[in-house]
Write a sequence for this structure.
């Protein structure tokens, strides 16, 4: 799902089946890293894993992004297969 509200936050991408959030951060997030950490800890307390990528990663290194997402999925406690 895109732009999914979870409590008081709106996440960029969310997969409920995997309890996985993917955030794509622009330059603005360089200024709010502490808020992002608080948000990530809150989501983790709900059993939701968050992984973050920069806009630059998405635009310039999509292969790395895909690889990282697949690694994260495979490392989830339930080890779901894709």
């Amino acid at each position: 799902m895109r732009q999914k509200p979870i409590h008081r936050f709106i996440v960029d991408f969310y997969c409920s089946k995997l309890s996985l959030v993917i955030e794509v951060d622009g330059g603005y997030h360089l200024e709010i890293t502490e808020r992002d950490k608080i948000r990530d800890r809150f989501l983790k307390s709900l059993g939701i894993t968050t992984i973050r990528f920069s806009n630059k990663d998405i635009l310039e290194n999509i292969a790395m992004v895909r690889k990282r997402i697949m690694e994260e999925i495979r490392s989830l406690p339930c080890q779901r297969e894709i």
